[in-house]
Amino acid sequence: MESSIYLPLEPASHSSADDLEAANWVLLWVVLVRIPAKHWVRTPQELWKQNLSENDAGLNLDGKKVMHVDILHWGPPITFIGRRFRPSEAMLPFAALLSQLFTITDRATREVESLLEKDAESPGPSASTIMEISRKHYNEWLEIISNPTFVLPDRW
């Protein structure tokens, strides 16, 4: 499958929400490569690592869509997550953090898209409006990532 079917025919817009989402994927990758591969055997995360390593843009994007949905289901409490979406034992310590971060970027993306749709026939949102929205989401994301209650496992 060619990756060109995943790329828009018109120039793609880029927003601060895209930057937050990219940071989430980097954090997820760090977790996946730091935990020994033996902990991923026969888990969804074994496939995730393969998908994030994929050079084909279409396959990479398809994999990210699945991961995104799974991670959004990881919201607390973990005990209520269905078997299909449940993180592996090795991923469990990171589930709440990743779920919160992906939820913020998901909300940021929807808000930015909504703003751009409303202003499609006008000159567009003002720079101050864009900065205000960006600042709100970045602050929320940074508050979560720097929260001292989130503790990495002693060994990972």
Structure in a nutshell:
Helices cover 58% and strands 0% of the residues.
Strand content: under 5%
Give the fraction of residues assigned to helices.
55-70%
CA gyration radius, whole angstroms: 17 Å
Q: Count all strands and give the number.
A: 0
Overall pLDDT level: 80
Number of continuous helical runs: 5
State the assembly state of the protein chains. Answer: single chain
Organism: Sistotremastrum niveocremeum HHB9708
Protein name: Fungal-type protein kinase domain-containing protein
Q: Which features does this protein show?
A:
single chain, 156 residues, mainly alpha, 5 helices, 0% strand, disordered N terminus, Fungal-type protein kinase domain-containing protein
Describe the protein in words.
It comes from Sistotremastrum niveocremeum HHB9708. This is Fungal-type protein kinase domain-containing protein. By secondary structure, this protein is mainly α. Helix content is 58%, strand content 0%. The protein has 5 helices and no strands. The chain has helices at residues 16-34, 44-53, 57-72, 92-118, 127-145.
Give the arrangement of secondary structure elements.
Layout: H1 16-34, H2 44-53, H3 57-72, H4 92-118, H5 127-145
Protein name: Fungal-type protein kinase domain-containing protein
